């Protein structure tokens, strides 16, 4: 089980939109499935927030640039999360330091994952899906869209 960390929402919109532009941030969503008694059950989703990293010929795990980008992604994600203690749960997974090779923009990419939905309460799936839509719409408000970064006129 991955240790998980909850971070309270903070942030100013203009500054966060600047971070989105700077890192060409965009999002992807994957269903989160857990196995219970041999049955696979969808309990929510993982939302990945991606930030561009200059091409690294010898990627070192968790270099200072990776860490700086991830820190900015945390600020962006925190804006989109509900206040601490609200159910169903959504939280930011700890940074594992990985740098992903990517052809997008000719850059590599750093990811932050927001995990949405409680594996112990699969009956909360509808609420988890509603929360996913809320988080996505708050991210879109900052200029973070599904599938790729889009220049915006903020
Ligand atoms: Zn790096």
The helix/strand series, from N terminus to C terminus, equals: HEEHEEEH
In DSSP terms, counting alpha (H) and pi (I) runs of 4 or more, how many helices? 3
Q: Give the CA-based shape.
A: globular
Name the hetero compounds present: zinc ion
Overview of the structural elements:
With about 150 residues, the chain is of the alpha+beta class. It has one domain (about 15-140). It is built from 3 helices and 5 strands; from the N terminus they run αββαβββα. Strands 1, 2, 3, 4 and 5 form a 5-stranded antiparallel β-sheet that branches.
Layout of helices and strands:
Elements: H1 13-23, E1 26-36, E2 39-53, H2 64-80, E3 90-92, E4 99-100, E5 108-116, H3 125-141
Antiparallel strand pairs: 1-2, 2-5, 3-5, 4-5
Helix pairs in contact: 1-2, 2-3
The protein binds zinc ion.
Zinc ion (ZN) is lined by residues 53, 56, 63, 65-66, 99.
């Amino acid at each position: 089980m991955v240790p998980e960390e909850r971070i309270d929402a903070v942030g100013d919109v203009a500054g966060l939109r600047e971070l989105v532009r700077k890192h060409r941030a965009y999002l992807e969503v994957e269903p989160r499935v857990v196995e219970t008694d041999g049955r696979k059950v969808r309990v929510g989703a993982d939302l990945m927030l991606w930030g561009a990293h200059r091409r690294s010929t010898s990627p070192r795990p968790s270099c200072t640039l990776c860490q700086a980008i991830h820190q900015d992604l945390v600020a962006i994600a925190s804006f989109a999360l509900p206040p601490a203690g609200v159910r169903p749960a959504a939280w930011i997974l700890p940074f594992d330091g990985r740098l992903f090779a990517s052809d997008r923009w000719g850059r590599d990419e750093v990811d932050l994952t927001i995990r949405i939905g409680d594996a112990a309460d699969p009956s909360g799936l509808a609420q988890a899906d509603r929360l996913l839509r809320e988080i996505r719409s708050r991210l879109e408000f900052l200029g973070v869209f599904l599938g790729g970064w889009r220049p915006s006129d903020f």
